[in-house]
Amino acid sequence: MIEEEEIDLLLKDLYEVYGYDFTQYARASLKRRINRLWTLDKFPSFAELRYRVRSDPDYLKRFVEELTVNVTEMFRDPTYYRTLRTEVLPTLTAKPFIRIWHAGCSTGEEVFSMAILLKEVRLLHKSILYATDLNPEVLESARKGIFSMSAMKQYSENYILSGGTTDFSTYYTAHYGRVKFNEELAEKMVFSTHNLVSDRSFNEFDLILCRNVLIYFTKTLQERVLTLFDESLAPLSYLGLGSKETLKFSSIQSRYKQLEGEKIWRKIG
Amino acid sequence: MAKNRLNAGHSVDCSVVVIGGSTGSIDVLLRLLPALQPPLSFALIIVVHRRNTADSTLAHLFSLKTSVPVKEVDDKDVIRPGTIYLAPADYHLLLERDGTFSLDDSEKINYSRPSIDVTFESAADVCGSQLVGVLLSGANADGTAGLKAIKSTGGFTVVQEPNTAQVGFMPQQAISGGVADNVLDIPGLIRFINDLNTTRSR
User: Fold this and answer.
1) Which residue intervals define the domain CheR-type methyltransferase in the entry (chain A) (predicted)?
2) Prediction ipTM score
3) pLDDT at B11 over 90
C-alpha cells in the first residue's frame, strides 16, 4: 500500500517531468488506482515504481491511462438519453449547426450513442461532435469505433429503453467478437486531446456532456471545470453531468435551470 | 465513548459503522433499521449489491423503516454522524480524509459495483481504529479483503452468523479467512450496533 507522502512524490514527478497535474484529483480513488497499478505491474517497491514512471515515457502512457478511469458504456442511464431525445435535441433543430462537446469521452461509447440519437432525429448532418480526453490512447480507440461484441446485448437493451426503435444491430458490423460502428456515424466526430485541468475553452457549444468525470476531481478542480464549461456554452445551451454529479454549490449555478428529474441543465442567464 | 463489552473484554469506539451485504442482506437491514435507537453517535454507511438502476427505491424503502435520516450518497457529500448513507447503484463508494465521500465508476470488483471491499478498504484507510465493519448475508466473496483491511488498521469486524443468513457464503468466507472479530445472529447484531451508539436514550 502506498503512503500519502509517496503519492505526493509521484504526483510531483508527473507534473514536473510530464506536465500532467493530478494534484486536484479526488485522493481516495487516485490512491486506489495507484495501488492497483503497483500490484498489477508487480513493482517490488515504491522506489522502483517511481523510477519507472520518471524514466520510461512508454510506461508513463500506461500509467496515466490506468490512473484515470476509462469505464464507459453506450446509452448508460437510458432515461438520460430519452430526455436528450425528447426534450433537448428538439430545441436545437432550428440551429444552422449543432456543436456538441463530449469532455472526457474515454473510448467513445457515449459519442457513438449521441451520433445514433442525432441520426434518428435527423440532425446528424448538421452536427459536429467534439470528443476530447486526456489520454491519446483511448482517443485512438474511440476513433476506430470498434467495440467488444459481448457488450452489445446490454447496449441494445439500453438503446431500446432510451426510446430507440431501430434494430440496434443495423448500426454496426460484427467481426471476430468485435463490432465496428458504421462510418456514417463517425463522419461528424472530431477527436482531440484536451486536459480539463490545464487546457482552455476551444469553441462555443450547444451541448456539453461530461458524465462521471467530475467525481474524480476535488471541489476546487470541479469549480474550475464548471467555469470552463460555462465559458464554452452558448445562451440556451445545455450541460449534462453524471447521475451523482451536480451544479449545486458551484458559482455558475444561478445561470442554469435543471431539467425535471435529470442531471441536465440549461443555460438561462 | 461507546462501550461495547466484548468477549475479549475490551470496548469499541467508533465514528463510522460500515455494513456490507449481498443476497439476503436487505431483509436483515429491514429488521435492523427499525431497531436502531436514534440519534446515532456515528455515521452508518450501507453498501449492498443490487441491480444497476439509477432509481432511489432502496433508499426510500430504508427511510420508511427508521427516523434516522437516510441519504443515497451524491458526489462530495459530507459524512456526518447521525445519518445513514447508502452507496448508490453502479458506483464504488469511497471516503476522503477531509470527511467527504467520493464516488468512482471504475471496473467492477468481485463482479460488483458498488463493491463492499472498496468501501471497507477506503474506510479503513481513513477511519482506522474508529471504524466498525459488518458483513451480512451474500453469495459472493466480496467483503473479506475489506474486513482484513479494517482489522489491520485497528478497526473492529463483525460478521453475520452464516446459519442465520439467507445465503451464508459471504460471511463464511470472512470467518474462514480469519477476519471476523465477532460472529453474531440478527438480534445479536442489533444489540451490538445499538451498544455502539453513545447518544441513544436509555
Assistant:
1) 1-247
2) 0.93
3) no
- Indicate if B181 belongs to the active site: no
Residue A255 sits in a domain whose CATH number is 3.40.50.150
Note if B49 is an active site residue. Answer: yes
Please identify which of the residues B22, B63, B112, B122 carries the catalytic annotation: B22
Q: What is the mean pLDDT of residues A78-85?
A: 97
pLDDT at residue B199, rounded to an integer: 79
pLDDT single digits (tens) B47-79: 999 876 656 789 999 999 999 999 999 999 999
Q: Which residues contact B11 (CB under 8 A, 6 or more apart)?
A: B1, B2, B3, B4, B5
Q: Is B55 a catalytic residue?
A: no
Point out the residue among A31, A71, A222 whose CB comes nearest to the CB of B106: A71
Average pLDDT over residues A188-205: 96
We find that the CATH architecture of domain B16-196 is 3-Layer(aba) Sandwich (3.40)
Asked if A175 is an interface residue toward chain B (Cβ–Cβ < 8 A), one would say no
| Contact: B73, A216; criterion CB under 8 Å | no
Same domain, A125 and A245: yes
CA B187 to each of CA A167, A215, A224, B137: distance values in angstroms, whole numbers, following the listed order: 53, 38, 50, 14
Q: Which amino acid is at B181?
A: D
